[in-house]
Structures are given as structure tokens and as C-alpha cells.
């Protein structure tokens, strides 16, 4: 476009001024209850009369002027100016001739301090590949083929269903063979990921944040595009294809969502219109000391509308099955990671962030009201009560909560040499005092294999054989206890080194029996977990669990029963946390008959020594542990064994 034409456009008023926003939209937005703002703000290609173009809308209440810069107008401020919509704080306008694929930003001129900035669109659906930062006009048209999954999704996501989650970082799960610097795109990875997850028996995948983020090393947790999947791996439709393909193969998809903080990059949300618009203006409430990022102003109505809309967007437009909310504890507490004098008490003098609590409750209410067949998961690391209880009861309303206490205690226990474990027995048993106060997920996540913590295998004591045996035992305890399961990629085949986002997992290790054995063990744990209702139907019900013996400190042995429902057989588990085999170890059982040995972590197929119970044992009329019958079993070294009750 010539300079003369650009000057002419800046002087001429358009014959029509189409708008995406109704008065009701403005009311709900300013009230903090609008949950589908992406339909109204951002960039939307439309036809106005005989003219095709794009309608733009952005919130910048303290701007004195806002214009759209793009590759169609030479990135010149003022050429395509937007117009303030009454007192809503929204600027909008129609730019003829702008079509899908156009790159753009907003030029924001503030009323204050002479502030001028080029900002990416907070509601953009697509963005340039980082490190470039422009937004891209993009439609979200896609023909979904996952109708069968969506019709049955409530069954797959139910709290009584088997939910075994494979957590992964898309850019480092696998890379192009021979080129560690080239990651696979959304479409390339779809069949590979579906094949692997199904072969391993996981029911869901959880993807570390895919929302656009400028710094790759943040793994997506420093989000700038709350409505745009990262373009590193392809277009929005490419991500839809990945989710669609997983659904068609019977795999659920969980996305990480980060409403707790956002980065200070100049093109992003920070200081958007020359004021602290999205972030809280007081650094004691608006700046996160751990991550050097900004904290949303949860008390601002329009910010609540923005965040609620972001959450619903991924469920509405991308068919996502669950959202895992990151760093909930940092939202709940005003003094999180702050010393005395570095935080401001709430109106009642407490340390609870009342605005964040209100947002989280509203988030869960809206999600379950509009999508009753999905789940929300909270990464919440404190003893905050009723995180996964309904808001009507005073809870936060999440479907489930990560059991960070189990993770820390269990990894601490396993780090001890077996000879010392009897002094730390309570680290394994304490969890059952609170196991049913929430709907728990047992996580061994990415956070445990980074920043010098080493891999799960490297955390285990002993020589290589003992490390692998301990790891199999760890996974056995995780899968056999009440709660849904989550494992970060690489753990399932005992990767030696800790995770690096810059390169692929070490798949070549599967050529070694030690690693192939651990992978086979995880596959069989998932199979048993799915096939046996006793292992999932009552995950969050105390009737589904009872100890056999939690007091055998001297021998470092734990044993328990998982009870089924609707006539499904119970399962007995016994774990030997020492390298000393235990022969003739007696376990009280509820019924007579033959108890089949259905899993043994010491089987040679998993890399074990092959000590076991020859397929099963018969219950004897010998009272033990409060039961009229008992079985005398062999407990292999550093291993879990599982027995299924006789069928009625």
C-alpha cells in the first residue's frame, strides 16, 4: 500500500463501523462474568456489506489512542485506528482488506507518562513462531471426527474410572531422528504418541502448557498467548488434529493452564496500556518473587472475564478433556514465598487471597456448568482444605488435587538405603490418614526430574539392579494405592539422566534389558489398573482400602487390600522394601480359596531375580490380621506382589 493511500485511510471514516460486541457483552465483561470473550475481542475476519476485512477489539481503558499495525499498512501507527466503545475500556474497529494470515499488533498510546508500545493481541488465536512476537489473524475452522469419544467422555473422565496420565513436554518427547534440534510438529507426533500411549496402557496424556510462550526454557509456564497454542509445532488446526487423533484412538487430553502468573515481556500483557492493567499494581501482590513474573489482579472484573474465557476457550474450541491448574498454592496465599513485611493482609487481616479464591471457585463452577463431562485438577501443595470439594460445601470446586505430600514423602523414603528404611516407615503410612479428604492424583511429575534433582532412577539407592528394582517398587506402590496416577515421560523406561527440554528422551536405552523391563512393568501395572475395578472404582472412597499390616517396621514390609465394588474381586498387595526375601510371610485375607499372583515386580521379564509364588497360593483357615483366613507368601527382594481374590 502506498504512503498516499495510507494517509488517505487515516483521514477517511469508514462507511460502516461493524462491531462484534453487544451491550450485554460489555456488561458481562465489566461485571467479570463473561466466559466467551474470544468470540468478541481479538481479530475476527468478517464481511461488512460488500467489503471483507477483519474486526479488531482490545481492552485498553487508559489508552488515549489505539491502532492496528500490520504487514498490510507498513506497521505504521495511526493508519488503522480503533475507536473507544463508550466507557467499557474496549477499543474496536473494522479494517477492510485484512484477511486470515495477516500479521499484526496493537499500537497503544497511553494517557500516562508518554507510554507507547506495540502489543501482541491478548486474544489472538495464532502467533508468529518465537522469537518473533506478532499476532496472526487466524480462523478456527476445523471439522472434528471425535464424536464417538465426546459422546462417551463422561465415562472416561469419571472419578470412578481408571485415569492413568502420561505427562509430557511435546517438544522433547521425541525429535526428528538424527536432528536433536528439530522437534516434531502437532501432526507428526499425533500417530506416534497415540500408538505409544495405547501400547503403554495410559488413559490420558497431559501436555505441559501449549499456550504461546516467548521463552522455550519456561516449558510453557510463562504464558503470553492465553488463546493461542504455540506456533512452534504448527497451526491451531494442527493442534486440533493432534487432539482429534488422540480422541479417535481413545486417549483423553489434559492441558496445563497457568492463571497464576505471566511474564514481563514487552509485547505481552504486562503494563499493557501504560498502567498495571492485567497485573496487580502493588508489587507485594502483583510480582512473583520465585518466577520474576507478574501476578494477575484477580480482584479486577475484566481480568476475571479474561481468565475465565481462556479456560473455557480450550474446552470449547479444542475439545480438551481436563485442565490442570498450575501453582494454585501461589494464588491462594498472599504471603506465598514472601517474608514478613513483603505482603499485604486481606480485609480480615489474614493471608488468604480472597479474590483468587473467588476466581478459582467461579472457574470450577463455570467449567462444570458448561462442560459437566470434563475434569479440573489442582496442583496445590499445601493443606488448604476442600480443594476438590464442591463450592456449595465451601470447597474450591476442583475435580481432583495432586497429592504433593505423597510424592515428597515417598521419594524421601525411597532415597534411604534399605537398611535405614525401618526408621522412616511413617513416610509411607502417613498418607492414609488423609487419603480420602480429597480426590487425589498421585503425581511423579516433571518437577521431580529437573534442576539437579536427577531422574527417578538416579534417586534410587544401590547398584544398577537395585536401582531398577527400587524404581519398579516405587511404581508398584503408586499404582496400588488409592488415587489416580500421573507419570512424567521417561520415567516409564527408567531414563538415567534428568529431563532436558532441549533434546529427545533417551529412547535408545530400551535396547537394554534393565530399561525394557521397567517399561514392561509400567505397561502391566496400567493393564491391571484398568482391568480390575478394585483399583479404580473406589479410588476416593475409604471403603476401597484397608490395611493388612502397616506396622511391620522391623522387616520394612507393608500390606493392604483394595476392595472392589459390585462383586468385583479384592486385591492384596505386599511390598518388601529391603533386598532380603521373606519366605512364609503371613497375610490375613477376607475369603478362602486360591489367591492368584497377578503381578510380581521381581519377575525375570521385568529384570528381577525370579523369586515368587508359582502363580498363586491357597488361603488357610489360620486367623491373622483380623481375618479368619490367611495366606503364607514369599516376598521377593525390593518388590511388590499382588494377589487377586477368588471369584465368588
Walk me through what this model shows.
- This protein is of the alpha/beta class and 648 residues long.
- Among the domains are: 3-136, Immunoglobulin-like (Sandwich), CATH 2.60.40; 542-644, Sandwich (Immunoglobulin-like).
- The protein contains 15 helices and 29 strands.
- The strands form seven sheets. The protein has an eight-stranded parallel β-barrel, surrounded by five helices. A six-stranded antiparallel beta sheet has the order 22-23-24-29-26-27.
- The termini are far apart.
Concise structural overview:
The chain is of the alpha/beta class. A hairpin with a 4-residue loop joins strand 15 and strand 16 (293-294).
Brief descriptors of the model:
648 residues, alpha/beta, Immunoglobulin-like, eight-stranded parallel beta barrel, six-stranded antiparallel sheet, 15 helices, 29 strands
Low-confidence stretches: 1-16
**Helical/strand content category:** alpha/beta
Major beta-sheet overview: 8 strands, parallel, barrel
Q: What separation lies between the terminal Cα atoms?
A: 81 Å
Portion of residues in helices?
10-25%
What portion of the residues fall into strands of 2 or more residues?
15-25%
Number of helices: 15
Q: Give me the CATH fold name of the domain at 3-136.
A: Immunoglobulin-like
**How many DSSP-defined strands?**
29
How do the strands line up in the largest sheet?
10-11-14-17-18-19-20-21
